[in-house]
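Q: Hi! First time doing this. I have a protein sequence and I read that you can turn it into a structure. Is that right? Here it is:
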Amino acid sequence: MLRVNLVCVGKLKEKFFADAVAEYAKRLGRFCAFRIAELPERRTLAEEAPPILRELKGFVIVLAVEGKKLSSKQLAARLGALAAQGKEVTFVIGSSCGLDGSVKERADLLLSFSDMTFPHQLMRVIACEQIYRAFMINAGSEYHK
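A: Yes, that's right. Below is the predicted 3D structure, encoded as structure tokens:
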């Protein structure tokens, strides 16, 4: 079973965000071994980098506004190919201040979900939904339509 990690800086403070993430994590359980690593925010991005770098495993996808844009179907194809290769996948969401350059340099893929800026707590929900959507697309489900 594919291992998918989501490394996040900062805590989910609002219950509705935490509930949404928990729901997607539960749904993802039928497709992958899904794990969330929640790291504390620090005073600087440079201080946040070492704990993030220690959590990175397998193919690393860092969410960054300057990253490549993929459609949901393209993300599904990428995850399907990685699963076929037996690769572990780690997604990274930085703090509200972003990510240190060393984390972005370690990425195998810088991924942008939009040119818009989203709160990092909401981004965690969006990322979980898109990962779930990718698995549903690969399963041939009607969910995507």
